[in-house]
Design goal:
Blueprint lengths: L1 H7 L11 H25 L4 H28 L7 H31 L14 H15 L1 H20 L16 H12 L4 E9 L9 H18 L7 H12 L12 H14 L15 E8 L4 H18 L5 E6 H23 L3
Helix pairs in contact: 2-3, 2-4, 3-4, 8-11
Length: about 350
């Protein structure tokens, strides 16, 4: 049925929507269980089947309606999430919850009328084990209602403090089992080579008279490049700085001691040569057409968001202390950074959506 609705509204399936049938089933069954339980209770009290159905829907119907409405509203709070698949999931789940409620009020009573009551309904309610237990609990709550309220408030405070400390950590391959063949292959490259997690950094030039190819800007990029390799943990970077270092080493017969940023005069000369012989426009991978933005890219291991956040904190601290922010601005970007931002945003929006139900 879900696939038919998606096709009717021309909505493609995605990974998030695959859990929708399970959620709708759980919500629909909860309405059915409440209504059928009340129906059986009325039968045990000696009422006729028709009267039991009327009483069940009269006394439990409003409660199930409010439950369905609040559940639908909770899922609609997912519209505050920036990820489109999650928004779509919230919309269709809310619609599915209300559709399940409609079925509980139309199809279920027809089935109760047509189906013979179970033998369990002939057993007196006072003989039920839970009847005694629940009544004993009710009497205890009424006698200790102040203590119960204080305990409830204390639990709410503990939960609130716990929610405020929620942090999101994830790994690129955490959804794959450790013995999965694909994960084994990825783990090999992640360990033996430079890692799988993308790292992207953009250097933006401040001021209309400056360009990313100016030597002053390149020197700032060289500082960042050195920090990324010595402290951040990258093996190497791909940027204008690395291109100039490679060119300088090539001019000196490939000696590693010349893998360093050349002088301003030599750097300018090398860049002109690179631009002249760059027939396939490979330099566009590092510099945009306006020469305002420069790219520094690399990869690192799948170390998790916590460790990446620690590295980024040190990077921002280094930028604040050693980079001329009147000359350049530094922006973290790329697939890895966007995944981190999306996971953090998703977790925060889910928590705020849950808290909004109490206001």
């Amino acid at each position: 049925m879900d696939n038919g609705i998606y096709g009717l509204v021309n909505e493609p399936m995605n990974l998030v929507l695959t859990v929708l049938p399970t959620i709708i089933f759980v919500v629909a069954m909860s309405d059915v269980i409440h209504l059928v339980s009340k129906f059986l209770e009325e039968l045990r009290l000696g009422n006729s089947k028709d009267q039991a159905i009327k009483t069940a829907y009269k006394e439990v119907g409003i409660a199930t309606l409010l439950t369905s409405l609040t559940t639908a509203i909770w899922f609609l709070t997912l519209l505050t999430v920036t990820m489109k698949p999650v928004k779509i999931f919230g919309i269709y789940t809310a619609l599915g919850v209300m559709f399940a409620f409609v079925l509980a009020y139309t199809l279920l009573p027809a089935l109760l009328v047509l189906v013979k009551p179970p033998k369990l309904s002939s057993k007196p309610i006072v003989q039920n084990y839970w009847y005694k237990v629940l009544h004993m609990c009710f009497r205890y709550v009424m006698a200790k209602r102040k203590q119960v309220m204080l305990i409830f408030i204390g639990l709410i405070i503990v939960v609130g403090v716990g929610v405020s400390k929620v942090e999101t950590n994830y790994f690129l391959l955490e959804d794959l089992k450790k013995d999965n063949e694909m994960r084994s292959q990825f783990d090999y490259f992640d360990t033996e080579y430079m890692g799988l997690r993308p790292f992207e950094l953009v250097v933006e030039v401040i001021g209309s008279s400056k360009k990313i190819t100016d030597f002053g800007v390149i020197k700032q990029m060289a500082k960042i490049d050195s920090f990324l390799i010595s402290d951040y943990g990258l093996t190497q970077t791909f940027s204008l700085v690395s291109i100039l270092k490679i060119a300088n080493r090539s001019e000196h017969g490939g000696q590693n001691k010349y893998y360093a940023l050349p002088s301003e005069r030599k750097s300018t000369k090398m860049l002109k040569k690179i631009q002249k012989f760059d027939k396939t426009n490979q330099l566009a991978m590092l510099v945009d057409s306006t020469a305002v933005f420069g790219r520094m890219s690399s990869t690192l291991g799948d170390i998790g968001k916590y460790k990446v956040d620690e590295k980024n904190s040190r990077l921002y601290e280094f930028i604040d202390n050693h980079i001329d922010e009147n000359l350049v601005k530094i922006h973290l970007t790329g697939t890895g950074h966007l995944l981190d931002e999306n996971m953090s945003s998703l977790a925060k929006n889910l928590v705020f959506g849950w808290l909004s139900l109490f206001y």
